[in-house]
């Protein structure tokens, strides 16, 4: 404080005016539209669904999945709901129409009994199987690793 004036009060007032201006501009901005989900390489029309509770049972879980999908997708055909042999809470769901996959995932994600629903993704260890050079690691010292050639 010097001569009865508060040092820095101008910068505080400027910041307050700027904050109010930005808030008003943000309030007038158009609402952001949700972007369409981009699904990476996956098995067409298939998704993996994990149920929250093992106590639900396979038959009840299957009927819950059929019911939720039928309600969400309407006339889209559900080909099968198969439980995994290794985990009774995991299911492979097959749809007849791959274009309905995103809507099916959204519908099942909103179900309380479903832990997650995701596309049946395809993972590869090579970027291009026909090009051996593109499959090498990007490690600059790879040539020094004699045991990995």
Strand count: 4
**Which structural class do the helices and strands define?**
alpha+beta
The helix/strand series, from N terminus to C terminus, equals HEHEEHE
Query: Percent of residues in beta strands?
Result: 15-25%
- Share in helix: 25-40%
Radius of gyration: 27 Å
Largest sheet geometry: 4 strands, antiparallel
Strand order within the widest beta sheet = 2-3-1-4
Poorly predicted tracts of residues: none
- End-to-end Cα distance: 72 Å
Walk me through this protein's architecture.
There is one protein chain. This protein has 149 residues and is an alpha+beta fold. It has three helices and four strands. A four-stranded antiparallel beta sheet has the order 2-3-1-4, with helices on one face. A hairpin with a 6-residue loop joins β2 and β3. α2 packs across α3. The mean pLDDT is 76.
């Amino acid at each position: 404080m010097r001569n009865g004036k508060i040092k820095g009060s101008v910068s505080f007032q400027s910041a307050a005016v700027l904050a109010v201006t930005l808030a008003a501009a943000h309030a007038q901005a158009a609402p952001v539209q949700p972007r369409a989900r981009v699904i990476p390489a996956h098995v067409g029309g298939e998704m993996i669904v994990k149920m929250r509770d093992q106590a639900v049972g396979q038959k009840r879980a299957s009927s819950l999945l059929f019911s939720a999908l039928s309600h969400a997708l309407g006339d889209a055909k559900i080909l099968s709901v198969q439980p995994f042999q290794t985990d009774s809470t995991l299911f492979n769901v097959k749809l007849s129409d791959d274009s309905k996959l995103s809507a099916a995932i959204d519908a099942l994600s909103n179900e309380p009994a479903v832990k997650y629903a995701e596309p049946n993704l395809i993972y590869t260890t090579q970027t291009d199987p026909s090009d051996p050079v593109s499959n090498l690691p990007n490690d600059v010292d790879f040539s020094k690793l004699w045991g990995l050639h």
